[in-house]
Amino acid sequence: MKRLLYVMFAMLLCTSFAFAQGSDSYKLTADKIYGVEGSYYTAEGQVTVIFRNTQVTADTVTYFPAMGIIEAMGNVNVTDETQNLNADRVTYDMTTEMGVIDNVTGVLNGEYFVCAQSVQKLGKEYYVMEGAVITTCEGPLPDWSFSFQRVRGELDGYLVGDHTTMNIKDMPLMYVPKFIYPLKVTRQTGFLIPDMGYSTDLGYHINENFFWAIDYDKDATIGASYFSERGVQMLGEFRYTGSKDNRIYLSADTIYDSESVVDASNRWEYITKASLSLPLSIEFIADSYSVSDNLFMRDFGAFSLYDSNENLENTFHQYYNLGIRTQWADWSIYYRDSYKYKDTDTGYTRTSIVQEPSVQVQKYNLPLKFLTADYHIAYDHVYYEEEQTFFTAPSVINKGDYQRIHGEASLYKSINADILNITPSITAAYTRWQSFSDPIVVEEEHGYWGSDVSRSGDAYSRFIPTVGVQVDMNEIFRSYSLANHGIINTFSYAYTSMLEQEGLPDLLIDDIIETRHEIAWTMTNYVRGEKWGAEVSMKQGVDINLDDIFLPMELKGYLYMPYFRSTTEAKVSLSSSELKTRSNDSLILLSNSSILTLDDAYRFYFKYTYDNMILNNYNASIELGANFKLWSNLELQYANIWRAEHNSISLSGFSPTDVRAGFIWHDQCWSLGLAYTTEKYMTVRETNREYRRDHTIELIFSLKGLGGSSVDVYNDNVVS
Questions:
Q1: Do the strands 689-703 and 670-684 form a parallel or antiparallel pair, or are they unpaired?
Q2: From CA 386, how far away is CA 664, in angstroms rounded?
Q3: What is the pLDDT of residues 487-527, one digit of tens each?
Q4: Which of 273, 440, 522, 700 suits 641 as a labelling partner, its CA being 20 to 30 A distant?
Q5: Which residues touch 521 (CB under 8 Å, ≥6 apart)?
């Protein structure tokens, strides 16, 4: 709507501007031109006025130079590259830039049809229209239209319509006595389009949000959602963008859930994302995403102002960092809390790892005289807690804390040769754990190159060095008449001393340092034509420390050609059951996604995924889908997902879990459709773990030139 009305008023402004400048830059032709010099000039018979890219034709055009007024009468037409308007009469005052157009009809921007009894230009950018109708549908009786008894509009301001109706054919569908809509190109304060629907869990719901354009660099959204079965959810959002180094985003919503199935009735969600550059090279970073309980995302996540991207892992965090950058070191002190909810057969767990406080100093890509260096030193006070909540018993809590000091430094040098690039490196890592709330017992271990695990009182220290080298070969490239062919090879060697680390804390990412003696080779081989191509990459590693020395082979393939695209990824183990969790099958991972498109009217796709490392859940899925048009008006959509728990790759034993089917009817100026979706999932309720199924009906609609939307009009959530 904003785009349509803005273009309409902008085009009328251009028309008036053409006349205003006509006295010194127009070309006038007519069958007859006469008048009294200094008083008036009249052109009659096939009059044409050309100003820049605008052409005006009329039966008669009269110019009064003393008053600065131009009148065009009889079969008036105004045409340029963006408009084609017809009118009975046009009067324009070049001094005041005011004018009137009577009985105007025409097309704006190639798709907007408009007619009005009169259009008055009351200022440079202010207009009043009487008896106006706007639509994007052709024909004397459009499929839909907006009718206004009177419209007042200002470019980069507001449109205010009196007694406005939305019409389907000649039948009024919706009426409002006062219609207000922003015409501003910039963000504008106002109410957003409401959303409504029904769910068996939440009841009938309706949502309304208000957008507040505070300033050019900040805005906010506040709103509320009413659920007939659960209560009122309050929502708020704030955004500030001063520069790429100064950004703030805040979002929160809360509801008193009258039918809550979790312990808390006051349920909430808040998100903070901020990055501020302060004086003296000081930086502040905040990044948090928290919820009140394990089922909040399932119940209310879809209604949040924040796009959660369907946080199916139920993983949340809080992170606050205050730092200062210098030439040789970046200093910071921060707080981090990472926690996750996970469903179990008897309830759910909440696992939390808190670093409070944490102090670190680091620098990467630090240029020295002959080498480049990376280093990282950190002190952490780590709190950990795992809470198991049972359906029929109290929670069991496993928690504790300890202190940790970690330092890591690397030296490397890139050496360019004629056909390759060699980068040798050496890394040393030292970690000390101390002040355990619950004592741990770890055997001391001595490895090669000085690596060891040692104990001093209740503290444990670990030192591990790593040496390596990477060789990047120059690309082997040949150009042929039909295609280009290229091969890229990379070789790497890394040695981290063998060391027994069982029993050492491994909650933080720096704690996990795997021993290895590995040689790896990566090759990418591609062929690319004008409209087709294929690419295959392979990574193979050899770990000399293992009895079965081959690491899983990683394969990736990509094929594209007219009408068809396919992507395949696989990971294959060439060693024994140490790397296999379900069987002796060597395949660990396989995924394929293929799309076939015919004549832009038929689209078919196939997806297969098998992951041998997923335990106690579906590890294989097949998805089939299609989109195709019938008679160029009716578009059909279908998708079906089958899942299974397999010990090896197989196309049998799948059961349907998710289905989406629907249709959209596309007319010349509107689209309307329905989609049905069913989804099976596992969740934890009050007393047990159960499989449930969502049934959703979605209304899809759009109006040409105004955009479209979709609304979940019905949702049924039942035990499967």
A1: antiparallel
A2: 49
A3: 999 999 999 988 888 889 999 988 988 888 899 999 999 99
A4: 700
A5: 489, 490, 491, 492, 539, 540, 541
